[in-house]
Amino acid sequence: MGKDKYRIREKSGEPGVYEVDSLTHTHKPYTVDLFELMGNGICNCTDYQTRCHPNWEKNCVWDEEGILRKWKIVDYGVRGRPNKSRTQCKHIKLTRHYFLTNLLETLYWKHRASEDEIKNH
Ligand SMILES: [Zn+2]
Fold first, then answer.
1. Distance between Cα 99 and ligand 1 center (Å)
2. Per-domain residue ranges for the chain?
3. Cα 83 to averaged position of ligand 1 atoms, centre (Å)
4. I want to staple 95 with a disulfide (CB 3.0 to 4.6 A). Which of 28, 32, 44, 85 is the partner?
5. What is the structure's pLDDT at 28?
């Protein structure tokens, strides 16, 4: 976030899985899986492992049969002032934004194509 620059790439053959590279700090890329945990996503960074995931587990309610009945997704928050109860790290936040931007573009072109089809009939 902020002045940090990131590169996000979809891992081929693994839907929902992305590699997040920092261009300002050198470290190995983080792996984000957006489809995990009811769409909360998971990441292998320290913030996710030590804060976001424990927060996620605190919010979960399981029934007697071991089925997850309640959960709560808490956004990363604002740069410099992240939510204390966040269930998503900044890498998840960035990847969700990237995912949504691509999805909206895809939907836009689908919508355009179906409108063109209507016009041409
Ligand atoms: Zn992360």
1. 15
2. 6-119
3. 14
4. 32
5. 85
